[in-house]
Amino acid sequence: MKKNYYNFLDLGEQPLANFYIKKKDLGKKEKKYKLKIRFELNSKLVSIEKTFSSKTMFNNEYPYRSSMSKTMKDSFLKLSNEIKKRIKPGKILEIGSNDGSFIKNFNKKKTIGIEPCANVEKITKDKKFNTYPSYWTQDLAKKILKKHGEVDLIYSANTISHIKNLDDVFKAINLILSSKGTLIIEDPSLLECLKGNAYDQFYNEHIYVFSYIALKNLLKKYNLKIYKVDNLDIHGGSLRYFIKKIDQVKMLHESVLIQEKRELKYRLNLSSTYKKFALRVKNSKKKLISIFKKCKKNNKKIIGYGATAKSVTVLNYCGIDSSYIDYFLDTTLDKQKKYTPGTKILIRKYSGSIDNDVDYVFLGAWNFKKEILKKEIKFIKSGGKFIIHTPEPRIL
Ligand code: TYD
User: Fold this and answer.
1) What is the pLDDT of residues 13-52, one digit of tens each?
2) Which ligand 1 atom lies nearest to the CA of residue 371?
3) In what order do the strands lie in the sheet with 46-48?
4) Which of 199, 368, 373, 375, when mutated, tests ligand 1's pocket best, judged by the most ligand atoms within 8 Å of its CB?
5) What share of the chain is helix, strand, coil (3-state, %, to 5)?
6) Which protein residues are within 6 Å of ligand 1, measured from CB?
7) pTM of model > 0.90
């Protein structure tokens, strides 16, 4: 039988991202897996080949906090204001509410949050938000429907692309979304990922990197339709899709047609595009390694900034470990004093500035480049430089 997918990228052996290593476990063997990326020829969906269960990835030790960046908080606030002004929903449900950065902008009585990582969900529960420490499934949707009734707005940022069983996700959404309700989904954009050679958008949690065309195809099955698309500067370029039940969409916003045109112009529907991307990724690896080697040859001190899940892919793919990077700085408490997966680089607490003896900083959190460069103006003015791998590995 002819294969209906094309495996276009092999990112080598990778550990699970977001599984930061405790000091006492440094000697233990880490589990690794082959990270390969594929393009489904019919649906146009791009996904990783080997997936892990949600229970493996999202548990009581999950370190990610959406409130860690001003960029994210500002973005949630801006969207919340837009929702209040234009959509004026009654009940709001968020899938993947994390530490409450979005729901906190609304009246507690109106919001329901779903967050499977109990350690993170506790943050909102303690503040008396109506949140559930559960995975988003049809069973949960039925339970919530019984207790709270239908909802008028469902929002989910950087979460749907983490769930393997999309059929269950959208069936659950259809169970609880009112007939005139709005669904807003936000995830990294495949077009921007390819354009920026941001191969680190692929790791075990990012099962899918959606394009408009792939999501449109998928949603058809569930009688859902995208009526507006916003391009966001978030996470290296994201798309925010505004969706309704098909019979409620009278007209498409021009942004939908523009996005479709852009994606087709870039040939996101063709395998050859992915083949070219894979070649660019290989070149990117060579270039990044040569930058690190050159800095080390000149006895420069390099540290990392933002121990992101994304950077786990880059560091492991390029073989950049603690012999190149002395340590990472990160503001997330749950990552501090731990070591990066696979490459075992110490993560230190960010205490407001970069040490004077640092020459180069590898920007793991390149998706917050603007915010970070603004914050580190003193380091830059005193001659400090940043290393970034996207869109091309270079020194800033
Ligand atoms: P992020 O890119 O949001 O996610 P992912 O892990 O999904 O790739 O992670 C950003 C990380 O960078 C997070 O651990 C917090 C850290 N960070 C800083 O340490 N300082 C900063 O100024 C910013 C913006 C982020």
Assistant:
1) 999 999 999 999 999 999 999 999 999 999 999 999 999 8
2) 24
3) 5-14, 33-40, 46-48, 208-209
4) 368
5) 40, 25, 35
6) 64, 68-69, 306-310, 330-332, 335, 350, 365, 367-368, 371-372, 375
7) yes
Task: Say how far apart CA 309 and CA 274 lie, in whole Å.
Answer: 23
Could you tell me the CA-to-CA distances from 178 to 80, 156, 172 in Å, in that order? 19, 16, 12
Q: Which of these, 95, 26, 2, lies nearest to 338 by C-alpha position?
A: 26
What is the structure's pLDDT at 59?
Answer: 84
- Using one digit for the tens of pLDDT, what is the confidence trace for 321-330? 999 999 999 9
Token look-up 């559930």 returns: 132
Return the structure tokens found at 202.
Answer: 């692929």
- Which of 64, 232, 311 most suits a substitution to test ligand 1, by most atoms within 8 Å of the C-beta? 64
- From the list 222, 116, 115, 214, the residue with the least C-alpha distance to 167 is 222
